[in-house]
Design goal:
With about 130 residues, this protein is of the alpha+beta class. The chain has a single domain, classed as Alpha-Beta Complex (Nucleoside Triphosphate Pyrophosphohydrolase), CATH 3.90.79. About 15% of the residues lie in helices and about 35% in strands. It contains two helices and seven strands. Strands 1, 2, 3, 4, 5, 6 and 7 form a seven-stranded mixed β-sheet that branches. A hairpin with a 3-residue loop joins strand 5 and strand 6.
Length: about 130
């Protein structure tokens, strides 16, 4: 089974968290699920460099991600592949970005995160955010 190392950004502005809705996916169990933006680590990149690059590519968002912003790591096995996802909690100064790959997005207070249909790997992050950022 293929294993991917990925990163995810928990983007926070004015106490609300950015939730991105995936577009249709070749794996139907991921289509239209909500997730935290990010992507695959490339050779020679740190996790922070990966996340900064992915945010620029997917959202045209310039953000320097720092090691001290690390939030948690999730291991998850999907039916067709497994992932290790390193997440970072990042305050952003504004909500201006361009949605290039996702179908939709919404900003939510932490206590409302559970109202969305999340990709399974993102659920542990969502639950911890609900606990810690009440």
């Amino acid at each position: 089974m293929k294993h991917l190392i990925v990163t995810a950004a928990i983007l926070v502005e004015s106490g609300e968290i950015l939730c991105m809705q995936r577009s249709e996916n070749k794996f139907s169990y991921l289509s239209y699920k909500y997730e935290f933006p990010g992507g695959k680590v490339e050779a020679g990149e740190t996790f922070e460099q990966t996340l900064s690059r992915e945010l620029k590519e997917e959202m045209d968002l310039d953000l320097e991600v720092r090691p001290e912003q690390f939030f948690m790591t999730v291991e998850h096995a999907y039916p067709d592949f497994s992932i290790t996802m390193h997440s970072y909690l990042c305050q952003v100064p504004h909500r201006i970005f361009t949605r290039k790959e996702h179908k939709d997005h919404i900003w939510l207070k932490p206590h409302k995160l559970e109202s969305l249909d999340w990709a399974p790997a993102d659920v542990p992050i969502m639950k911890r955010l609900m606990e810690e950022l009440k």
